[in-house]
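Journal club prep, notes for RB
We'll compare a predicted complex against what the paper describes. Inputs for the zinc ion case:
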Amino acid sequence: MRSPNVKLDELVAQGKVDREDSTLMNVKVPTGLVNRIDRMAAHLRSSKTELVIALLNEGLDAAEEELKGWKPPPKPVIAKDRRCSVKDCDREKIAKGLCATHYQAQRRARR
Ligand SMILES: [Zn+2]
């Protein structure tokens, strides 16, 4: 396998780059997409793995650029009288004074 940093233009140029450790990543992909990957890999005379890694690198670079300066929206503050009764839990209560997580935990513990 090629470098984990391989980009599409490098695949197109078929340049040799260093190898690096890899990990198997099991991802369910729509069949139509797999067919497109097959065709593009054949067109570029690269392996599907190389192509997917190049596409991921391109996509991650684009996403990082797009997300520069972006911050997740602040978590909504739940009013004290609507909060879960478990200490340090700030989620909204849904049943018996507990949030969904703690209510389910309590139910599981009773079984
Ligand atoms: Zn809770």
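Talking point for the session: The pocket of zinc ion is lined by residues 84, 86, 89, 91, 98-99, 101-102 (CB under 6 Å).
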